[in-house]
Amino acid sequence: MHDGFKTYNKYTKCNHSLCNAHILRELNGITDLQKQEWAVPMKKLLLEIKKEVDLSYGTHNALPLNKIEDFEVKYDKILKAGFDEDYAKNIELYSEKKVKKSVSLNLLNRLSGYKEEILAFMYDFDIPFDNNLAERDLRMAKVKQKISGTFRSSEGASAFTRIRGYVSTVRKQGKNTLDCIKSVFTATPFNPTLEYENVR
């Protein structure tokens, strides 16, 4: 999952999905700065799909086909309205020999060209709506770097990431962090991997 930076598309041995937190931010910008109306229903639709996915999570692996088709039709309809509105509001750009793309047209092209990657979270519930969780996990490493600078050795970096990974995982599993850290020094340390496998 990524923000749509084109260089990532060079990685062909994996599936791609786009972070909808980034899409929502761009839609807010189109609404606030470019005053284009299509962005509001698109934002509402993405959040409506997310709500539907959240309600179905745990009982299904994906949304039912009829709901997927319904959401795709709505998505395409909003996209068409968006292209029409962008053309009407930026007609002078379209009349030039080489079309200079507006910010909104760039987003519309991405929403159109990467529809499956944007809506991946409704086709497969293992794919999250956004990559905020991953970014949150990396934030502490950036804070550490800002405060203390870089690591003096690769062993230090490895130890830091292992401890951070352990703490992050036990928190996500709703465990008491201090109790889990204490358990590491006992004969029966808490193993988040085993706990996860038991849940699945």
Automatic annotation (TrEMBL):
What is any Pfam family matched here? Answer: DDE_Tnp_IS66
Task: State the coiled-coil residue ranges.
Answer: none
Q: Where is the Transposase IS66 central domain?
A: 1-158
Concerning InterPro entries, the annotation shows:
Transposase-related, Transposase_IS66_central
Q: What is this protein called?
A: Transposase IS66 family protein
Instruction: Look up and give the organism this protein is from.
Output: Clostridium grantii DSM 8605
